[in-house]
């Protein structure tokens, strides 16, 4: 297998983008990534696009053809990848495998979701859970994660304030990210006094509904310097599956898919959690950000709450978490999130993250989850 | 240019509090009240509809105008809750105020801005000397489906304006409209309740049209926010109204008088005309008012108005908005459901 490098990244502005359609979002992200990589569209050999549910959000399937057509890239082969909110992470991983295997040289992996064209996105999002055993019984994602949060509080003494701090730290970083959907700081009190969504989770524990797209360009590591002076190398690409339904887990306060993917990734990169200098985690709800720092091995199980409270996850802490603002502040266009996380780590490793730059960073990680942990991807990158 | 010769208002007696509605649906009343800036809304009694509200408002406007109703050459009733799908409300009003038969009359519909559209039509007819006086009414008994966010605000009320050239109490300086095809809120034929696009009703709908119309009027008149003593906007809730006002640079002293939604809810076609009436109730001669309506679908009409000396002689001749806001009786959700026809009665049919 060949080593793989990232030579270009992009992310559109995330938000309620009423004036930008699905096709225009992905085109903007793709063209910016091509520009960033200093290549031409004709240099691309394959495209992988992560998207959870264009069919339900904008009544459009067959998006692989649509995207290649709209961007003028025919006859480029394109594959749409779907694993709920981990679709982006999977698109990246498929692109990496295509280059690593030698099947393709220059590949674009992208992600896109247009979520605000429907009045209520809840039924579409709920399809990421077990329809028969969860969604059709009336359980939605806030309530599933609320059960995980409640159990974590019971088992480990995690406090409501510690969960709130996850959102507060995210927004502190996101306030410095011009591409974030909600680039403003919030306080613990604001989180605790926001509307109750599913006890104990409140509105400001929940990531928003977002339109957005992101893209990365991959090539063989040995060719990377032909295109850029600041290549970022893929040190590990791992994926694991867990049960789709929450009630089938051995423990609902641990996402085993994350644990398995992380172990594989550390082994592949020959690294330990201590080697990671920044991580973009999948904080679709505050509790999931907290679970991630435990399941990725940065703290012992049950210690996520105190770690966040003690400032360990801040930009100047031991393991900076979500320098981009995370899903909470940057926004969560489902299929684009895994790619946007990658773009953030690449910008950090290139030293191009502006006011939110982490000094001296050489190794970064991304963690992307589908559903409540039915799918997890973990990637490690270095400069 | 034409002016306002008389104005009159009507708000039903009954109210329901946000807490009472929230209790039924398991919502957090504090969050709803804070989020929408609404405390309670008016509720029409079973005998009240857009026709009765229009007639009440029209009679009150005639008290101030002090004109012979036979001189009214046109009546337009703007509403999205006309009692008949086919057969005008305007003819009921015309007969009730003794304006028939030598006049033209029609019902208008443009979601919540048909009332101000009627004012513009009357301005045109008066300015062209086709008629001496025109009567424009904005009134609604608004529909909100049970448990829909609209149920917290959809209320009832209306205001009537007699437009003419002589004995005006306030004069139009200019009007500017901004219209696009934007499907943010609609009700199809035969459907009991409207549908809306949730958050889409905000930035790309209400704010785009209200702010564009206001800025268009500023440009046309060579004015800005500081040139007006009072401003009124369409008010689907208090939050949108205050945000629109602040975005345009208005201060609380300028916008607070016309903001009625927190106390009576969203009277739809009646909202901007009622807010303007509340301002006329307290405005001094020489003061300038800007009024901007909004109708889903979507469009906004903006008006620049100057109050003249005649206001002092006329404003006490009919009930003021605040008097009607204060004259109230609370009902619980069960009575509200009965009044609004939300209960299905066995053995009875509606005609």
Describe what you observe in this structure.
The complex is a heterodimer of chains A (383) and B (351). Chain A is an alpha/beta fold and 383 residues long. Chain A folds into two domains: 4-120 and 210-227, Peroxisomal Thiolase, Chain A, domain 1 (3-Layer(aba) Sandwich), CATH 3.40.47; 137-207 and 235-382, Peroxisomal Thiolase, Chain A, domain 1 (3-Layer(aba) Sandwich). Chain A has 14 helices and eleven strands. Chain B has a single domain, classed as Peroxisomal Thiolase, Chain A, domain 1 (3-Layer(aba) Sandwich). The model of chain B has no long low-confidence stretch (mean pLDDT 96). The interface between A and B is small, with 8 and 10 residues.
Report the CATH topology name of chain B.
Answer: Peroxisomal Thiolase, Chain A, domain 1
Mean pLDDT of chain B: 96
Q: In total, how many domains does the architecture of chain A comprise?
A: 2
Instruction: Tell me, briefly, the overall form of chain B.
Output: globular
Mean pLDDT of chain A, as a whole number? 97
The level 1 CATH classification of the largest domain in chain A is: Alpha Beta
Largest sheet entry of chain B: 9 strands, mixed
Helical coverage of chain A, percent range: 25-40%
* Oligomerization state: heterodimer
Helix and strand element order of chain A: EHEHHEHEHHHHEEEHEHEHHHHEE
The secondary-structure class of chain A comes to alpha/beta
Structural class call of chain B reads alpha/beta
CATH superfamily of chain B: Thiolase/Chalcone synthase
- Beta percentage of chain A is 15-25%
Largest interchain contact: A-B, 8 and 10 residues
In short:
The complex is a heterodimer of chains A (383) and B (351). Chain A has 383 residues and is α/β, with parallel strands linked by helices. Chain A is built from 14 helices and 11 strands.
Attribute tags:
heterodimer, A: 383 residues, Peroxisomal Thiolase, Chain A, domain 1, two-stranded antiparallel sheet, 11 strands, 35% helix, B: alpha/beta, nine-stranded mixed β-sheet, three-stranded mixed β-sheet
